[in-house]
């Protein structure tokens, strides 16, 4: 898929929590085709201490409005600079990068999407794409508290949405892999993105129940093109660059729990 380097204009910057922002970006020309699971390398030009671009998952691609959404967690100088952009400001982006989730599924597939924290970002795009193709996805979202849940109302518009919080302030108390849903329903495929311990736990659940599972890794991806080798992951095929050969992998290709 062809990559482009482009200055995108901020249509809206909406604050979701104290540290999370939803940026809607557009261009004067049609944006290129994107698939769920791909990401963008964003230049943090307002941060003198940030020399490398920041990788951010594509939260949604709105073809009709010619918009790309980015869900930004402002956790460092670079991401704080990106999150500080206002309507009308410009962000220089390299996109779309990496591969994506499998979306060619039978309409009667029983599909579960599991996200934790800002890891829910690519799952919104995936859920909407699956729904558009006639597949009814089920979502399981995890966060520390109710206030940390991101885009919950958007997920609820697409399909059944279940929640866990570590403090029990919303949904079931605990981690996503402890949710009662996993004990009472059988799924054909699971997609997940979030903290590595969470994804490894989801992968173990899937493997123990003979369920196909794809994970979106969030290794540090400095260049996004497979040149810097910062994001190497050990797999059954040797060391692979997450930015180029991923970020989405079938768990059978990873050396987790092997």
Task: Please tell me about this protein's structure.
The protein is of the alpha/beta class. Helix content is 18%, strand content 34%. It contains 6 helices and 15 strands. It has helices at 77-83, 121-132, 152-158, 181-184, 196-208, 242-245; strands at 4-15, 20-26, 39-42, 54-62, 67-73, 90-97, 111-116, 137-143, 160-165, 172-173, 189-193, 212-216, 232-235, 238-241, 248-250. The strands form 3 sheets. The protein has a 7-stranded mixed β-sheet, with helices on both faces. The chain is globular. The two termini are 32 Å apart. The model has no long low-confidence stretch (mean pLDDT 95).
If you compute it from the alpha carbons, what radius of gyration comes out, rounded to the nearest whole angstrom?
Answer: 18 Å
> How many beta strands in the DSSP annotation?
15
User: Which strand order do you get reading across the main beta sheet?
Assistant: 10-9-8-7-11-12-15
Q: Which residues sit in consecutive blocks of at least 5 with pLDDT less than 50?
A: none
Helix content: 10-25%
Strand content: 25-35%
> Structural class of the secondary structure composition?
alpha/beta
**Average pLDDT, all residues:** 95
Straight-line distance between termini: 32 Å
Sheet with the most strands? 7 strands, mixed
Number of helices: 6
């Amino acid at each position: 898929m062809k990559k482009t380097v482009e200055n995108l204009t901020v249509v809206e910057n909406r604050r979701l929590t104290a540290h999370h922002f939803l940026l809607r970006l557009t261009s004067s020309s049609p944006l290129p085709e994107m698939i769920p699971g791909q990401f963008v390398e964003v230049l943090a030009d307002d941060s003198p201490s940030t020399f490398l671009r920041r990788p951010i998952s594509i939260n949604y691609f709105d073809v009709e409005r010619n918009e790309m959404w980015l869900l930004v967690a402002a956790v460092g100088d670079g991401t704080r600079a990106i999150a500080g952009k206002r309507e009308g400001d410009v962000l220089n982006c390299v996109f779309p990068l990496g591969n994506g989730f499998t979306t060619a599924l039978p309409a009667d597939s029983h599909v579960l999407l599991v996200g934790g924290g800002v890891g829910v970002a690519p799952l919104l795009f995936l859920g909407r794409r699956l729904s558009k193709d006639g597949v009814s996805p089920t979502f399981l979202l995890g966060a520390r508290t109710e206030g940390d849940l991101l885009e919950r109302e958007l997920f609820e518009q697409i399909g059944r949405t279940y929640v866990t919080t570590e403090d029990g302030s919303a949904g079931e108390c605990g981690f996503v892999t402890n949710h009662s849903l996993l004990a009472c329903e059988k799924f054909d495929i699971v997609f997940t993105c979030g903290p590595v311990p969470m994804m490894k736990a989801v992968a173990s659940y899937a493997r123990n129940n003979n369920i196909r599972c794809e994970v979106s890794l969030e290794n540090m991806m400095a260049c996004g093109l497979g040149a810097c080798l910062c994001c190497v992951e050990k797999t059954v095929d040797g060391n692979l660059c997450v930015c180029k050969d991923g970020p989405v992998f079938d768990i059978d290709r990873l050396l987790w729990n092997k």
